[in-house]
Each structure stands twice: as structure tokens, then as C-alpha cells.
Amino acid sequence: MLRYLVHKIPSVLGVTVVASMVAFALPRLAPGDPAVALVEGDADPATIEALRAEMGLDLPLWEQYLRWVGNLLQGDLGNSYLLNRPVSQLIGARMESTIELTVAATLLMIVVGLVFGILGGSRLTPWARTAVDAWNTFFIAVPAYLVGLLLILFFGIYNRVLPVSGEVAVLDDPNFGLQYLILPALALSLPAAATVSRLVQTSMLTNRGEDFVDLAVSKGVSPRRITTRHVARNSLGTAAVVVGLRIGDLLAGSLLIELIFARNGLGSLAVGAVQQRDYLLVQVLILFAVVIAILAQLASEITLAALDPRIRLG
Amino acid sequence: MSTTDLDNAAAPPAARRFTVPVSLARYGAALRTPRGMIAAGILLALTAIALLAPVIFPQGYDVQSRDRFLGMSTQHLFGTDEYGRDIFVRTVYGLRTDLALVAIAVPVSGVIGSLLGLSGAVWPRFGNLMQRVFDVIIGFPSFILALCVVVVMGVGFASTVVAITILGLPGFGRLARSGALEQQNREYVVAARTLGVSRRRILTRHIVPNTADPLIVHGAIFAVNAVFIESGLGILGLGVQPPQPSLGSLLNVGMRYVREAPTYPVGPILVLLLLALALSMLSDSLNERVNRR
């Protein structure tokens, strides 16, 4: 395990460093001088020059990059010049909403994914099997934001059952908070849950053909017990990995979900920053997203190895 | 000795050198499966109506009127929007935008990705470098990468094309590389090499044609993603910009006015789903019939 981690360090670091370079390069590749963009109306060249110096834009590129990374590593994420507040403060203020949504979506994904996966891998009547298959096929094919739009139409517009726009912090007011949270969390989790259940289903059907199942049948173990103890249990390892892999997707998917449900999370912060060309903010958010995605991927690989002794990393 | 052999022998070498790079029969078989037939039918119909849009609706997508936010009716199939424009007409023109995007971005991404992958198989060092580059692209969640492109290039059709192209590179590249590496060790390639066939000829005559099938199937799969990337960017307001419609931007505006006109986004969503459904059915049937393992 340790060997695997050590082995993995160069590639993880490499991707992170390159991602940081990309994030650093973005504002410099974008058209226009960031200093000019900040100045209201016409300004004399001296003011702009002073602003450039203040932002460090007059230094050579590599020095700017090293400075930026150095500051990031020390926890100084810089200032958003447009909003005139530290980036760390902006992120901190929006973090709770995104975490709320991602945690709720993860829980829903696990529950829905396992229920439908185990249902699909159990003995079913043909009709039930068709229903489960259709459900999975639909949600695998459709991206989260479309599910979100459909949920808004069905539960917010045509039947006004649940609020579809805005949010209330769950910790402040659990009752209203959950009402606001349920549709976005469902939208985010259903497509991910479908991939989980498809995998659980496949793995259960494979396990059903194993010798130990035949042995259990010949011993006279009841079908239900075979399904729960022998088949389902052995399929959970696969589920754990997919869940880990999907958490990164959920975070990235929250970008669109937050926007269409008008939630004030990191995703809508990022989109707003891109629209207003607040590059310093965009850079940090992009790097943040990539690092989290990489970590989630790494974590799921480690989980798999921990769960399944047949898999040796290294 | 049959006559065909004599004919072939008599044919000029230039004519004989032409071979169909992939066995087209299997593509035909894929399209003749029930799923393939439905997919091809839907796609043909959608493409036809999108191509003919300027003929069917010569007045264009920007005709405004005082009838704002009408519901669905026989006169306005999908209703009218905030400027009294017919949403059905706008959806057809939006479909045109989306199909154009897919038709440009997917082949471009496929060709560049495959070339990078093949070069990676020929020059191992370059291949290793490309693998790392692909790792980085995959490390970016797809919409974050699309955001990066928008930051650099601004919003619009072009940046959507570029975003889709970049996002497709790793898939095509890895498939081409692994396919080529697999073919390189096959007996017939080894035999050709022993016979003294030039490296270039082995590459173009043996390796490229035999790695093409999975790439084409992947192209069909990736087309679905391309449509969804466009509509995602459109919903964020970072895709194709108004007044030009695209399925994504129609959804963006439609959801904004959904309280005034509850059926506004329904038409675009249906068309988007239909397009995605047809493309994924096509890729499924191709995958079954063409991708032999």
C-alpha cells in the first residue's frame, strides 16, 4: 500500500503541477490586461502602471508563477479585485452550500444505487426487471442537469410541491433546508446512482454463477439468504469503488446543478467569476476543483485495495 | 484460374491499392438491427429538418411578434418566447447549431486524438508524454475544463467547439494508441515486417485500418457527450450566444421564463433528449456489431 502511494506520487504531483500552471496561465492567455480591466473608465498610464506593480504583473512570468504557488501553499489565496475581498473568504462563504449538496447527493447516490443495484441483481419478475433496467438505462444516458430541469418542471412548476430556487442552510432550519435541498440533491445523485446500480447488478449476476453459490444451493440455503449473504455481500466492494469515483463527479456536477437551482455554492461562484472575468478567483477555483477530483480518484483506488484482498496495489 | 483473378491482375496498381479501410458490411449490419434502424431514422429526420431549416422557415429564427409566452398550439408547436418568437422554429435552428457543432468538433477531435495516439505508438517517448497530457485533461472535471476554454477564448460557438475537441482527445488518443500497439504484435504485421514491407506501409495499410473501427464507434459515443457539453455550457450562459439559438441556450432562457410560460423549455428538452437517445442507440448498435473483440 505504502509502495503504491509512493509510486503514485509523481503522477499525482505532476497532474497537480500542470493543472496549477494551466490555472496560472489562464488570465494571461485571456484577451486584455487585467490591470486595465480593473480601472474604471479612462485612467492615466501611471495609475495602471502602479496597479500592475501592485498585482505583480511587471515581474517575469516564472517569478509570478512561483509567487502565486508560494502564496497558495501558505494559505494565501489572493484577493478578488472585482469583489474586493480575499478569495479564501469568498470560498469559505460558499463552501457550506456546496458541501451540503454534495453530502446529500452522495448519501442519496449510495442508497438509491444500492437499492436498485441489489433489486436488479435479485431474482425478479420480467416486468420488474424491465422497469429496473429502463430506470438505469435512462439515468445513465441523461446528465444531471437535465434531470434537474425535469425535476424543476415536474415538482416545481407543474405541481408546486417543492421549492426549486434558492436555499436555506440545513443546519439553521432543518425543515425548510431539506425541502430546498431535496430536488437538487436528487438531480445530482440519480445519474450517478444509476451507474452504481448497473455495476452492482452486473457484479451480482456474475457472483450468482460462482461455485460457492451452487454449494449454498445444494446445502439447501434459502434463496433469500443466498441473495443477501452470498451474492450481495460479495458485490459491495465494486460498489465502494464506484461511489468513490463518483464523488468527484458529483462535486463537478454541482456546478450546473447549483446554477439551475439558484443555489449560492462554489459552482455558481465559479460561473459568476468567469462571466465577470474575475480571473484571480477563477484560477483558484479551477485548481481547487482539479485537486479534489484527483484526491477522490486516489481515495477510491485505495478503498478498493483495502476492501478486496485480491487486489494488490503496487 | 478464374476470370476475376485475371481481371485483378490486369487492373492498374493504382486501382487495386484502393481498399475500403473498414469492412463496411458490418456497419450496414449494425444499421439494420432494430435499434440501429430507429437511431438512423431519427438522426436522418433530425438532420434533414435541421439542414432544410432555411427552406422550411425562410423568415429565420428572429421574427418577433406581440404574442409573447403563448403555450403549445397547432400554430406554434412549442409556443412563443419572450419576444413572441416561435420556439419551434428556434428549436429547429438550435438543433442546426448543435448538429453543426457535433459535425465539426467530433471529427476534428477524433482525427487529432487518433493522430496523437498513433504517433505515440510509433514513437514511445512521444507516447509517454502524450499519456501524461491525457492524464491532465482527464484530471480536469469536464465542465471545469470547458470553463478554462471560455476564460481564454470568451463565450461563443468557437470556444464550445474547442472545449469539445480538447475533452475528446484523451479518449480517441488512448484508443488509437492501444489499438496500434496491439496490432503491432499481431502475426500478420510481424509477417509483413519480415517480408520487408516498409514501416510506413505497415502503418497505413495494416495498422490504421485495423484500429479504425473502435475509433469510429467511440466517435458515435462521444457525439452524445458533445451534445451534452454544448447544452451544459448553454445552460450556464457560456455557450452559443443569443440571438443565435442552440439547444443549450434555449434551455437557459427557457428556464428563466418558465413561470411565465410553463411549456417554454419542454420543446427544446424533448428535441435534446431525442437527439441524445438516437446518438446513443446508434453507438450501442455500432458497438455490438462493429467492435468485435
From TrEMBL, chain A:
Q: Name one Pfam family in it.
A: BPD_transp_1_N
What topology in the membrane does the UniProt record assign?
A: Multi-pass membrane protein
Database matches in Gene3D superfamilies: MetI-like (1.10.3720.10)
Gene Ontology BP, a term: transmembrane transport
Q: Where is the ABC transmembrane type-1 domain?
A: 95-299
The question of whether Membrane is a record keyword is answered with yes
Q: Which UniProt keywords apply?
A: Cell membrane, Membrane, Transmembrane, Transmembrane helix, Transport
The organism is Phycicoccus avicenniae
What SUPFAM superfamilies has UniProt attached to this entry? MetI-like
Q: Which GO terms describe its cellular component?
A: plasma membrane
Q: Which domain of life is it from?
A: Bacteria
Q: Where in the cell is it found?
A: Cell membrane
Determine if Transmembrane helix is one of this entry's keywords: yes
Q: Where is the signal peptide?
A: none
Q: Which family does it belong to?
A: Belongs to the binding-protein-dependent transport system permease family.
The protein, known as = ABC transporter permease
Positions of transmembrane segments: 12-30, 101-122, 134-158, 178-200, 281-307
In terms of InterPro entries, this protein maps to: BPD_transp_1_N, MetI-like, MetI-like_sf
From TrEMBL, chain B:
Any single GO CC term annotated in Swiss-Prot or TrEMBL for this entry: plasma membrane
Q: Which UniProt keywords apply?
A: Cell membrane, Membrane, Transmembrane, Transmembrane helix, Transport
> In which domain of life is the source organism classified?
Bacteria
Bilayer topology: Multi-pass membrane protein
List each coiled-coil range: none
Q: Where is the ABC transmembrane type-1 domain?
A: 95-283
BP terms from Gene Ontology: transmembrane transport
The record lists the membrane-crossing segments as 37-57, 99-123, 143-169, 215-241, 261-283
Q: Give the InterPro entries listed for this entry.
A: BP-dependent_transpt_permease, MetI-like, MetI-like_sf
User: Where in the cell is the protein located?
Assistant: Cell membrane
Q: Name one Pfam family in it.
A: BPD_transp_1
What residue stretch is flagged as signal peptide?
A: none
Give the record's family classification.
Belongs to the binding-protein-dependent transport system permease family.
Name it: ABC transporter permease
Could you tell me which species this protein originates from? Phycicoccus avicenniae
